[in-house]
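Comment thread on ticket #2218

A.B. wrote:
> Attaching the input chain for the structure job we discussed in standup.
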Amino acid sequence: MYAFDIERPTSIADAVAALAKEDAQALAGGQTLIPTLKQRLAMPSVLVSLSGIAEIRGVCKDDAGLLCIGGGTTHGTVAKEAVAHYPGLAELAAHIGDPAVRNRGTIGGSLANNDPSACYPAAALASGATILTNTREIAADDYFQGMFTTALEEGEIVTEVKFPIPQSSCYMKFEQPASRFALVGVFVAKFADGVKVAVTGASNNGVFRWSEAEAALSSDFSASALEGMSLSADDMIADMHGTAAYRAHLVAVMTRRAVSAAK
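C.D. wrote:
> Ran it. Output below, let me know if you need it in another format.
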């Protein structure tokens, strides 16, 4: 580690002002940033902690029927408080990392980092969620732009995420046992006007929607509708944990499992 200053704003306005300082970086739950600092892969001179901003924490349902989750809400809180409204999302949150990670990590931090193996990006993309920042609203289809890359601009903070609630949903994750990140994770969400399928952990381009599976499941929401379907291994991640072909195979397997378990 190395020396840096830390600021602890208590409002969004104060946080935005602090982030405008030279070489400042936002700190949400720190589950990705702190290890990055330890390895000196990032060396900001000022960390701006978002943990003291009460207005970006909490889970509620709005008048339009959307599930609204503050960007500073921890995974553990999502798991507990979203279960009555969006069981599939709550179940996803309940299996992120371990208790220490779930009690510190936040949904906004996860979406801002957009790790290619993170769970929330799949939920946001499959749900057709809207990511709200201190300046604008961004549709999930426009927000995710590649591995560790989002539409966020310098100094923008994820303040809230609004999720349309599907008729049924499920997230299936094949875990890398040491990190508990998704070797492959698939979120399936069935709405009245169709089905969305989002995949994390598999692609070099980050989270993506599997459009062929969506079309098949929109006509017949059953695992049998996916029989014989497969993804190309092109652009799939290949590492010590699995080949590109293995990940492509897992996507189809986990999608069928998610459809069978959706509720």
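A.B. wrote:
> Thanks. Noting for the ticket: The first strand starts at residue 5 and ends at 7.
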